[in-house]
Structure formats: C-alpha cells, structure tokens
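From the shared-data thread, chain only:
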Amino acid sequence: MNNQGNIHIVMMAGGSGQRLWPYSTPDMPKQFHDLLGQGRTLLQATAARFKKLVPHGRLWVVTQEPYVELVKQQLPWMNPNHILPEPMSKNTGPCIAYACRII
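Structure, as tokens:
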C-alpha cells in the first residue's frame, strides 16, 4: 500500500550559525551556505532530495523569523504558506510539535 499521500516532510532550518563560526554566522547560518561546493545550499540540496519523495504541497520549512526571506529566495518554488516562522526558538522537539500543529 502506498501512503505517500499522507506523508508530510518538515525541514528544520532555524539554526543560528554558532557551530561553524566564522563561516556560519547569525546573519547567514550554515543551512543557507553551499558547504559542499555543489552549487546549491544545504537547504536547497535537502529540498531537492525531498521533492522526489512527496508533492510540493507536502513540504514544509520551519525557520526563525529573520530567515523567512532567505528561505523564500532559496526555495522560490515553495508555497510561502509552507514556510513557518517559529514563534520562538526552543530546539528540535518544540519545532516538530509546532509544525505538526500547523499541518
């Protein structure tokens, strides 16, 4: 049985750029950089992999408010309503709970 129509994928892109400093900064954290030299950012590469698995309408990005425009620039094909600004940064668990609540 194929349950693909019931699957939603949530990409968490809310990191603040602390671990790879100075390359990754609060203004431009690692998810928005082409760290692997592939001509696309980590976020773009992840989205490209997931686009093969589910329809576009089932892809979501949770990020911090200051990064919403970066996500829109890097994923212009994505429904802007599927870019979810976190009400506050509280790590992975609350991020997933927030996305589940919205979905």
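Helices lie at 42-51, 68-74, 92-102.
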